[in-house]
Structures are given as C-alpha cells and as structure tokens.
C-alpha cells in the first residue's frame, strides 16, 4: 500500500494532481488524474489521503501537474523523465514491516533520480517501533562467531539513513554485510541534525549502555553551519568540527572502545573555497588516531565540493544511490583487519568476555575429583586434595626511599594526575647514574644557572653558580644532538631570571644564611601515574616538568618557596623540550584553573592555604597562565610558576571543544563563549592582535553574546586608574564596542561584571582647531571612526558653535565651497574659518567639472557618516568630553557651552577640554570647562616620531586628570544604526529618542 506526497508552492485557484500509467492515476489522461490535498497546517505539502494498492503491477510511472480552475494545467518536467515506483514496493507488504509506505517525492518540478520512501506510523507500528526498525535491521543484538564484535555508529542524519529508500542507507548495507562476513553486530544511535556539540553531550548516555568494541563517528561538517555562514566564519566552523571530532575520539577510548571515523562528504551548497576546508579537515581527521577512516570524498565529490550528478536527494543528503556509493567506498576486509587488531590491543569488552569464556572453558575441561575425596591415582588409591595455588607473580623490589603513593599507583591509578594535597616526603636531589622508581635512567647534565640579585650565595647576588639539571627521558626517546647544539647558551645579562625568580634555593638545601621559612619539599602524584614523554628535574630537585602526550597535558611542579619562570632561554629546560617533548603537539598550553593547586609543607607559608600562598608569594593568580611550544618542540614563550604549586597545562585546542560556542577563529586568534557566560580570547600567534569594533567580522561575531561589561579576570578587582589599558569588553546588541589587546601566545578570560547602563562611559569628540587631537588619540590607540572636525581646520570656535546649532546643515554644500589654489584646500563661504585639506586625491583636478563632481560626492558621503556618528555619540553615551586645541576667546567658549545646553540632553554630563598656549585664568569659572596651557604642533609631530610619542605621554596625563581610561571610554560605531540622511534629519531622528530608547532599554 502506497501513499504519495510532494512539496509544491501554488497560487490561489491551483491544485496539484498526479497522473500516470495506472488506472488510479488516470492512465496518463490528465483530466482523470488523482487530485492531492493540503491544508493550512501542511501547505506547501500536498498528499494523497488514502493508500493505493499496486500489488501485481509490473511497473508504475507518473508525474505531478498543476491544475487551475480555468481548466488549464502544467506538467512538471515536461519532456523529461517520469517518476517511478521501485519494483520491490509493488510486491506488497514485507514480513514484520508496516503496511503503508509513503513516497516522498521532494519538490514539484525536480524528479529525483532515485525515489525516497518512509513507513507510515500506525497503531500496530507506532513511531518508536518504526524508528527501531530503521536502526536495528540486522537481527540479534549480540555479535556472533569467534571474531564477532559489537559496533556502535553515532552520527547525523546521513548515518541514520535519511533520504534513502525506507532509511536503508549505507549503515543498513554495512550492518548486513559485516554481520554476514565477520559476525559483527551494528547498533545505530545516530540522530538527525546532530553536530559535534550535541553528539558530545549525548555520547555517554547512548554509548555507555551499549558497551561497544568499536564506535564509528560519522558526523557532517555541513551541520556546523559551514555551508551557509559568512566566509570569515568558516574557519570557526571548521575548528569546532575538528576539535569536536577529536574529543569524541578521546571519549571513545575512555569508554574502552576503538574509534573509527566516517569521513567528510560533499554538499550541494559547497564551493571550491568550501572544498579547501573539506580537504584540510579530511587530512586532520586521518591524523586523529582512529583505527580506520572511511574515505568517502573521492567517490562522491565531483571536484568542486558538490555531489556527483544523480546521487543526492538535496544539498545535504545523498539519495539511495549516494548511500550505495558510500557503502561501496568502505573496504570491509581492511576495516575488519584494522578493528580486530585494535580491539585486541585495547582489550575491548567483547574481547575481554571471550577471554573470560575461554578461561572458563579451559577450567571446565580439567578433571575434578569427587567432592570430599582426593585425586584417584592410577592404581585406584587416593591422595590428599592439593591446596589451591596462586599464579606466580614477579615480586617488586621496593627500596626504603620508594614513596608509598608510587607503589599504590601501580595497583590502581586514575587516568589523570590529581592535584590534591599530597603528604610530605623527604627529597634527595638525583645524581649521575641514578634511576627512577620504574628503573628508567636519569640523564644528568652539568649546567649553569643564573644566581639572582639580592642573594648571598657565592660572592654576590649577580654571580653564576654551578648546578645540575636532571632530565629523565622516557623509554624510546633520545635527545637530539642537532637540537642540543642549536640551543643557545644562557647569557649572564638575561633580563628575566630563569629558574627561581625571587630567591635562591640554598634556603631549601639548608645552606643559606637568609632568614625566613624553609619549604619542606612535597611529593605530587602527577609524574608517576602516567607514562610521560619526558621528565625534567632541575638541579635542586624542587622543580619538575612532566609531559603526557596521550592526554596532551603538561604538569609543572614547583616545590620550592620561589616563583619559577618557564622561559625559552632556560637552556636545559629548552633542551628537554626539544629532546623529549617531540610527541607533544605544537601549540599553546594553558593552565585552565584560576589558581594552581598548592602543596603542603614548608613552614608558615608552605602549610598555608592557596589564598595565603597567593598573598605571600605573588605571581600570576586569577588568570589562565600559558606557554607555547613551536613545531620544533621548542618553548616559544614564558610562564611563571607560583611557589609550592602544581600547575596542569592543557593543550589549547581542548578549550575549543569545551566551550559553549566558537565565536571567531582565523587560524591563530580564537574568541570563545564559555558555558559560564565569560568570553575567552586565545592568541596562538607570535604577534599581538588588536581586537576592536572596526574589525567588522570580530565586531559582529559578538552580537549574540549577552550585553554587558566584561573585564579581564586578572584585573577585575582593580580600580579604573590601576587596571591596564585595553582590558575591558563592552558588548551591546550590535556586538563589540571597545578595543582589547591579545598579547602573543596568550589566553585571556573576560568575565561579565555589570550591565552596560551600570557603567558610565564617556565619548571624546575633537572640535579642531587642527588634527592634533586625532593624531594623539591615534597614537594612544583610543581613536575610532572620524567625527566632523577630525580632519578639517577650524580656526574660529564661533564657526563650530554655529555648525552644531544648525545641525551641520550646509557644511559640505557644493554651492558654499570654493577651492583655494594657494593653500591647496577647499574653503567655506559661510564659515570662513572652516577648510578641508584632505579631499582632493592624487590625479584629481578641482578645476575639472567631472573631477569636482566626484570630490563633492565623496565629501557628502564622508561627512554624512561623520555627522551621524557625532549625533549618535552625543545621544547614546553617558558623558561627552569635547576636546579643542588652539586659541579661543572667553565669549566663544561661553557661546559654545550655551549651544551644548540646547543640543545635548540635560541627563548627560558635558565637559569641554581646552588645550592652548593661553593662560588658565582666561577661562576660569566657566562651568564644565578645563584648560591646559600647552601647545600641540601637528606638523612637528608628523615630522618627528619622538616628539609625537612625547606629546602622547603629555596627552595621556591630561586624560588621567579627566579620569578617562579604556574602562570608561565610549567607542562610537563606524555605522551607527539609523545614521542615514542629512545632519538635520539624523539629529531630529536621534533627538526624538523613541527608537533609541527601545534599543538601549532605558530613557535617553
């Protein structure tokens, strides 16, 4: 029994019919066609309301048509191929299947190369039963045969069989054949619409109960949104997918199963640019450590990222033919060989069960005497039943110095090293020829270490001392001679001390004369519990670096009372990284916790809590400390390690998989929205990133972040005057509205501290007389898009007051402008002190009518935008600081203040800062006016870089007097919402404040 449905957009008076080769379809007589139905809830879906029985028919072909009330009609795909019902569907109901099949014919006018159908739900077969029928078509839920394994498939709609005939996609064929050939059982837990995030969230709940031996991860790069997002957002989508898949691989291994990856595949919306992302992702997936990779791209892609002709149902999904090709791309024998070997090595659940079963079978085959009697001898006598014996064990030689925790860790150790407080033990620095507790030799090198200023060791604070550094290299890892020779010697005048930063280790050894508490070194369980690629121990034995490649983790222990600097110039530490950390992936390693774990011991400070440790020793607390490792395995940046602490540095890529959303990624800079609402900025580049609203892609990516003020977590409790510049994010409905800096090899976390309206922000608007203010704001990096007077010359303050009073009407009116050939600038006939010097571009002639027309059009466009910003800033900021350089009279200033009162809201604080060579007394007593007796010369600043920088320092001091920092600076958007039209129109629109109040959620 068959039903039919199709999506068709119709106009009033049109209906959809189906006409074909059977009587039910009118035998190709369109006047006898079967009319379909629709309703308000279903449109544009048209469908047959009753099931049709074609049992016994040899073939059924048909087409849809539009029938109008006036008796006219239109065939779909006139002259092209007909639709058809597959022969299997004409044989009647299969055993154990629903009675009605619905043919989903897609859209009107496009005839699918291969039909698609689904079962109709009924009382006998509800949706749950049909879904189970789709997912478990292979019969028994347990593996069969001596080599059978349990395979779980977790993926998206393609893995769930969508758009194939009766959902019999590549998984159906795969499950059927691997059971028939190898005895494997396949369980499909795929979910339509799944991406890496949703799959990770449900992974444990659907995989753990199954206890599979193999997990096939078959997700779509297209489900991350890469097909339809803006081009600048594609790297972020790719990063999210790759990191998510890699995390799923690790989760599979933690479940005790073997991971297999389903590869990338085409999409009808992909372009050649998309294909470059697909190819790079394919390469990355092949290096993720999976036991096998299904390479689908070569058999499905036509060369530009799109599906080959005739194998897809829509842009995102293959049809039955496409699913068949996907299945044929899987070499089943190679796949089976790979997973059998990997499962044996991983000792997966089925392998363990079969081993246990064989062990029991062997035990059952041994002769067992009758209960209560001895063993019957050959001559019929009895002997005493022997006592049970244990299998032989190799006893471990335990030395008195072996920590008990190390012995226990060999019996049962957690996967990741804990950072809880361990008990204190005595410590003996290693010597040449020593071995660790596991028998690995310690490589001891004689090195030089910088002695720090202020100490009493040797002859003085600046002397060098002879020391030893111990590098324990894991089995199979040998130091590279070339790498060792390439490492530069530590210079005696190194600016940043290496090793302990704030004291000498003679105190810990008992040989120092300085007073103060002495640290008792404490053991941590981190290095002994996982196979590290390398173990570095400094000469004192108090500082240890251990790397764990499988977990992409570096654990740094500082058991001294002094801050250590992990720095590229520390020669022996660098050599350890180059020689032994070659298995660690290159990139940024980040300590995720706000503070490290503190170890016990060490007198007064050593036994204190982490909070007291912070106050006693200082250091980088309250922020994610990080360091970078380059492609050569070398340290590329530094990190400070607090005293008496254990710091766990996780590979930076992990944070992309753990966050709530990747907002932006360009290959080096990542902006992440964390699950707790904070914003994390990761810069893996060797250069600083300037993140600001003029960067359109970055500004827009934060539009979905909750509005508010976000402070760098390191400085969140500092006063405005104490906090560093560019450490505050202002985010509104349009996205980023402030500037922050991302230093090289850094990770910053910005925490939301308040609503936007709780922070009073001040905008700086220059009022001439020349471009000095613009130059100084630019050097200070406080500049944004231009205001009307930034690049003009306005010698008379009265002209400025008049322009503001009349809403800049006529400022760039061509009828009021004339070109001054002597000085090379346009001048204004009404405001004689106003002139424009930067409007004529190279190659243009102001006397040429066509050139002059282009100049005036450009000026109108520029100054309309600048005027829009002016009024937007005045009406949207909390405070306004107008900045004027050059001489003025008291009367001009008082007149300007009067204009401010007319044009600016009374709820806003308006100030005027005057900077000129005049005496302060000239403007004394004018409310809201501050004057600095100083002259900025823009010509000299442009000619002399040093003078420009010196004047910028002076200007910065003036801003401090005005109590302005980047924490309360208002950044005007480049294109203000609603900022179109003439200056007067913009002012009137913003002054009404109706739309503005709604946007800001408060009165303006």
TrEMBL record:
CDD domains: CBM20, SGNH_hydrolase. It comes from the Eukaryota. Residues 350-528, 599-618 are annotated as: Disordered. Residues 452-462 have a biased composition (Gly residues). InterPro entries: Carb-bd-like_fold (IPR013784), CBM20 (IPR002044), DUF1796 (IPR014903), Ester_Hydrolysis_Enzymes (IPR051532), Ig-like_fold (IPR013783), SGNH_hydro (IPR013830), SGNH_hydro_sf (IPR036514). Pfam families: CBM_20, DUF1796, Lipase_GDSL_2. Residues 1-107 form the CBM20 domain. GO terms for molecular function: phosphatidylcholine lysophospholipase activity; starch binding. Residues 359-373 have a biased composition (Basic and acidic residues). Residues 478-494 have a biased composition (Polar residues). PROSITE patterns: CBM20. Residues 515-527, 606-618 have a biased composition (Low complexity). PANTHER family: SGNH HYDROLASE-TYPE ESTERASE DOMAIN-CONTAINING PROTEIN (PTHR30383:SF5), THIOESTERASE 1/PROTEASE 1/LYSOPHOSPHOLIPASE L1 (PTHR30383). This is CBM20 domain-containing protein. It comes from Chromera velia CCMP2878. The lineage of its organism: Eukaryota, Sar, Alveolata, Colpodellida, Chromeraceae.
């Amino acid at each position: 029994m068959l039903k039919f449905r199709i999506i068709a957009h119709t106009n009033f008076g049109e209906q959809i019919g189906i006409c074909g080769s059977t009587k039910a379809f009118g035998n190709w007589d369109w006047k006898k066609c079967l009319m379909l139905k629709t309703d308000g809830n279903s449109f544009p879906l048209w469908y047959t309301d009753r099931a049709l029985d074609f049992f016994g028919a040899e073939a059924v072909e048909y087409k849809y048509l539009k029938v109008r009330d006036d008796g006219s009609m239109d065939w779909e795909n006139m002259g092209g191929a007909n639709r058809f019902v597959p022969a299997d569907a004409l044989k009647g109901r299969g055993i154990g299947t629903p009675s009605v099949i619905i043919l989903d014919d897609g859209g009107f006018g496009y005839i699918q190369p291969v039909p698609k159908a689904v079962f109709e739900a009924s009382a006998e077969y509800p949706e749950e039963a049909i879904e189970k029928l789709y997912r478990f078509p292979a019969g028994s839920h347990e593996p069969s045969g001596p080599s059978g394994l349990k395979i779980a498939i977790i993926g998206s709609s393609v893995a769930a069989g969508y758009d194939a005939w009766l959902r019999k996609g590549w998984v159906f064929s795969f499950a059927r054949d691997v059971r028939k050939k190898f005895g494997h059982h396949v369980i499909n837990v795929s979910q339509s619409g799944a991406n890496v995030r949703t799959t990770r969230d449900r992974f444990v709940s659907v995989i753990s109960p199954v206890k599979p031996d193999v997990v096939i991860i078959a997700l779509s790069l297209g489900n991350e949104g890469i097909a339809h997002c803006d081009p600048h957002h594609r790297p972020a989508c790719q990063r999210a997918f790759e990191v998510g898949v890699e995390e799923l691989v690790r989760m599979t291994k933690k479940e005790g199963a073997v991971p297999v990856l389903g590869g990338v595949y085409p999409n009808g919306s992909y372009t050649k640019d998309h294909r470059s992302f697909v190819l790079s992702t394919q390469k990355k997936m092949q290096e993720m450590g999976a036991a096998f990779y299904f390479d689908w791209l070569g058999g499905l892609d036509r060369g530009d990222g799109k599906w080959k002709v005739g194998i897809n149902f829509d842009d995102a999904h293959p049809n039955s033919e496409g699913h068949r090709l996907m299945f044929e791309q899987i070499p089943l024998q190679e796949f089976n060989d790979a997973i059998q070997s990997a499962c044996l090595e991983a000792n997966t659940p089925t392998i363990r069960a079969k081993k246990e079963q064989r062990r029991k079978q062997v035990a059952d085959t041994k002769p067992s005497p009758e209960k209560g009697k001895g063993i019957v001898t050959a001559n019929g006598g009895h002997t005493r039943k022997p006592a049970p014996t244990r299998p032989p064990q190799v006893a471990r030689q335990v030395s008195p110095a072996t920590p008990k925790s190390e012995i226990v860790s060999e019996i049962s150790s957690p996967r990741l090293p804990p950072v809880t407080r361990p008990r204190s033990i005595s410590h003996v620095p290693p010597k040449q020829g020593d071995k660790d507790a596991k028998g690995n030799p310690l490589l001891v090198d004689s090195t030089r270490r910088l002695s720090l200023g202020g100490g009493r060791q040797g002859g003085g604070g600046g002397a060098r001392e002879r020391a030893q550094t111990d590098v324990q290299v894991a089995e199979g890892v040998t130091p590279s001679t070339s790498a060792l020779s390439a490492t530069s010697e530590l210079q005696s005048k190194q600016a940043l001390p290496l090793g302990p930063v704030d004291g000498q280790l003679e105190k810990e050894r008992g040989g120092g004369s300085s007073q103060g508490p002495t640290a008792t070194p404490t053991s941590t369980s981190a290095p002994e519990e996982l196979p590290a690629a390398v173990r570095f121990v400094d000469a004192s034995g108090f500082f240890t670096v251990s790397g764990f490649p499988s977990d992409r983790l570096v654990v740094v222990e500082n058991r001294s009372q002094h801050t250590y600097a992990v720095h590229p110039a520390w020669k022996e530490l660098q050599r350890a990284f180059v020689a032994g950390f070659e298995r660690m992936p290159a990139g940024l390693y980040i300590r995720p916790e706000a503070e490290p774990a503190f170890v016990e011991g060490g007198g007064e400070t050593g036994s204190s809590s982490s909070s007291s440790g912070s106050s006693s020793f200082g250091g980088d607390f309250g922020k994610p400390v990080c360091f970078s490792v380059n492609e050569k395995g070398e340290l590329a940046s530094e990190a400070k390690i607090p005293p008496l602490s254990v710091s766990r540095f996780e590979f930076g890529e992990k944070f992309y998989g753990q966050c709530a959303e990747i907002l932006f990624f360009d290959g080096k800079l990542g902006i992440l929205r964390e699950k707790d609402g904070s914003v994390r900025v990761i810069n893996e580049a060797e250069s600083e990133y300037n993140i600001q609203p003029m960067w359109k892609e970055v500004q827009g990516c934060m539009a979905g972040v909750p509005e508010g003020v976000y402070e760098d977590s390191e400085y969140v409790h500092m006063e405005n005057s104490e906090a560093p510049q560019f450490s505050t994010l202002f985010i509104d409905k349009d996205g980023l509205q402030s500037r922050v800096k991302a230093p090289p090899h850094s990770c910053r976390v910005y925490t939301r501290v308040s609503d936007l309206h709780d922070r009073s922000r001040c905008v700086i608007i220059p009022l001439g007389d020349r471009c000095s203010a613009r130059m100084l704001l630019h050097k200070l990096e406080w500049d944004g898009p231009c205001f009307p007077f930034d690049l003009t010359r306005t010698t008379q303050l009265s002209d400025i007051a008049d322009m503001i009073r009349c809403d800049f009407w006529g400022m760039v009116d061509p009828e009021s402008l004339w070109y001054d050939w002597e000085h090379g600038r346009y001048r204004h006939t009404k405001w004689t002190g106003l002139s424009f010097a930067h409007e004529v571009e190279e190659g243009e002639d102001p006397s040429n009518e066509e050139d002059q027309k282009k100049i005036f059009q450009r000026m109108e466009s520029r100054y309309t935008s600048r005027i829009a910003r002016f009024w937007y800033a005045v009406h949207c900021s909390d405070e306004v600081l107008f900045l004027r350089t050059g001489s003025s009279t008291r009367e001009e200033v008082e007149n300007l203040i009067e204009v401010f009162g007319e044009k600016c809201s009374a709820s806003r604080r308006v100030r005027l800062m005057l900077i000129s060579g005049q005496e302060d007394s000239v403007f004394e007593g004018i409310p809201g006016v501050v004057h600095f007796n100083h002259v900025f010369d823009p010509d000299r600043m442009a000619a002399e870089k040093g003078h420009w920088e010196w004047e910028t320092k002076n200007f910065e001091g003036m801003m401090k007097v005005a109590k302005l920092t980047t924490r309360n600076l208002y950044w005007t958007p480049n294109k203000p919402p609603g900022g179109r039209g003439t200056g007067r129109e913009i002012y009137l629109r913003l002054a009404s404040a109706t739309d503005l109040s709604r946007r800001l959620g408060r009165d303006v």
